[in-house]
Amino acid sequence: MATHGTPIDPLAESRHHVESAGDTPRLKLGRYEVVRELGKGAMGIVYLAKDPLIGRLVALKTIRSAAHADDDETREFQQRFIREAQAAGILNHPAIVTVHDIGQDDATNTNFIAMEYVEGQNLKEVLAQGRALTFEQIADIVAQVADALDFAHSKGIVHRDVKPANIILIEGHRAKITDFGIAKIASSVANLTSTGQFLGTPNYMAPEQIKGAPVDGRTDIFALGICLYECLTRRKPFGGDSLTSISYKIVHEAFPPLAEINPQIPDGYEEVIANCLAKDPAKRYQRARDMAAALRSVIRGEKPVRPPDPMLAEETMVTRLDRDRISTPTLEVPFPEAIEVDTGGNPVAPKEMGGSTRPAAAKAAAAAAAAQAMPRTPRQPIGQQFRRTLTNVRALPLWRRRIAPPIFAAIVAVLVAGLIFAVAGIRSKSPVMPKEDKAAYQLSLKATQLREEAQVLVREGKVGDAYLKYEELSKLAPHSPFVNLQKQKLGAILQSNANSQQQQLLAQQKFDEGKVLFDQKKYVESIPLFQEAFTLNPNLIVAGDYLKNAQVEDQKIQAAKVKQRATTPSKRDVATATTGTTTTHAQTATETAAANDTPAQFTTTFTHNFTDGSIIVKFGADTVLHAPLWEEVGRFLTKRKRAKPVNVTKEVVPKNADVQVWVTVASLKINEYHVIPATRFTPGSSHHLNVIYNAGTKTFAYEFN
Length: 705
Ligand SMILES: Nc1ncnc2c1ncn2[C@@H]1O[C@H](COP(=O)(O)OP(=O)(O)OP(=O)(O)O)[C@@H](O)[C@H]1O
Ligand SMILES: [Mg+2]
Known about the structure:
Layout (H helix, E strand, L loop, with lengths): L16 E5 L2 E6 L2 E9 L4 E7 L4 E9 L6 H19 L9 E7 L4 E7 L4 E2 H6 L6 H20 L12 E4 L3 E4 L4 H8 L17 H4 L6 H17 L9 H10 L5 H4 L7 H8 L11 H12 L10 H4 L46 H13 L9 H13 L10 H24 L6 H25 L3 H14 L4 H39 L3 H14 L4 H27 L3 H9 L20 E7 L7 E6 L2 E7 L1 E4 L6 E4 L2 E7 L3 E10 L4 E11 L5 E9 L4 E6 L1
Parallel strand pairs: 11-19
Antiparallel strand pairs: 1-2, 2-3, 3-4, 4-5, 5-7, 6-7, 8-9, 9-10, 11-16, 12-13, 12-17, 14-15, 17-18, 19-20
Helix pairs in contact: 1-4, 3-6, 3-10, 6-9, 9-10, 15-16, 16-17, 17-18, 18-19
The structure holds adenosine-5'-triphosphate (ATP) and magnesium ion.
The site of magnesium ion has 5 residues, from loops.
């Protein structure tokens, strides 16, 4: 871990300056050329930079140095900075961001750490964006981090600042943890206590960290437990609006149960979190790898594997008071069996930092760590242990006393009887199911039964009854997307049925009114009522028939009137003839009945995309067309409306009359009315009206010949 040249010598060439590359000035920190800013943290800015020596991109984390009072203090800080960075630099693990180098910029009194640039998004950003992660993905990400922490702990390095912002996700699923030991460096920068207390939020701190007690790997396990909780619930377990209230909760309060926030979080996570968030470190997972293993069993749908007995784990868990922040590096909890792995997960020999020249300080630090590792008592072979136990049992005073034969026989009899009772009891009982499992089983049986019944009802077309079943089911499974979708679909059908029932009633009412008028020979008055009835319910065929009859009767009356006028011209006709005026208004169109019996053909076409509404075309008083623009397809759940193109030909009595067109589409608020004035239909002639709708301009056009 050395910059090009002498790394931390204040007189060294590592200088923060701007160089001109063509027209673009480039910011430089040491030998590194800054490309752009990656983000800001509590300690300083993180830059994307280029190492011109090997053309590699690095993330350059700058750490503002405090204005130290004297030279001794500055030297102390720099020694500490090197030591911590060296400690972090010995970590070579696929899920740990590698530290490449450190340096100092004298001009700004800025120290920096050059580390592996990870192209991805940190977990804090992912959570802030509300990106969906499945429970399995969360468990997998946290398990990867737990493995990385376990590796670091086995090297005696505690992270101290595990939080979502320090977990970077590559391609959304591979995790890398960054900022190892940075918290400790920062604590010296900020001139805080030596116990690793740190600026910023205490949200992820363990109780011992808050109390200023010694920290160890279990402190990181607590913080990772909080990250897991936050990922699962999108809430912090110990929230608050002040430092004091958060700290109080961390030290004294239990975390809110997961099920209270989201009952869908699968079983097992609660137990893992409880094993991470125990206030007493001895009651937590003792190794981060235990946490990883527990999470992986939860992913497999099994009960999380139990953490090893803390009594045994104490043997391997050594905490060291961190009193001397100057003379000791962050090498605190040397776990045994540290195996360094390469990116492919293969074991490798310990790597020297900064290439080939690992500084003596790092070697000393590693040696100190090794020296501090608790020596383990050599294990005895099993046979030997068994023999020793037997000898100890034999030595118990009870065995040395003589027992009277009747008492001995009574003891044996009692034991045998007890055994017989126990066996009989076990055999007579069916396997006992835990209370909760029984209840859950009953619920799932009920849910299955309801679902089957509902499906039968749907098949039988009993939509209302099926809806009620699904409603009952949704109380048992309120978050089931299938049940909610079925409820929604059936609800829509019921609603549309209710609407159409109302429409049918209204249609019948209009028809009845029209019929009364028809029977009184008031044909003209009855026509609009029949028309309305037919529009409201196109299935009311009788309304269509009456409409036709009323029109025919009306035409007959009109024809008779015209005939009468032709034979005995009225005063009004005479007046019209003398003035030569012709009236061609839609409502008062002049109709000339043709004496000839040969009808004319009238074809209407209209291609459109409407799924509701209707079209009416009238030639004089004749209704040439009255049709809905839609039709219904499918049954029950698949029932839907689709557009129905119009192509209708009708025979009409040849005459001279206006053509009127109405198009009504309620969903688009279209109420179109158009008149083609006084058109002469000669006997046997064919006419074609093509209605065109322009959806872009929402206008109608008409072609007529
Ligand atoms: N090695 C890296 N590669 C890519 N981006 C990084 C790397 N290290 C840090 N970053 C990004 O730089 C930004 C600032 O990181 P930094 O560690 O300074 O702040 P933090 O972790 O959010 O807060 P704190 O200073 O409290 O640790 C973050 O967006 C982080 O994702
Ligand atoms: Mg960070």
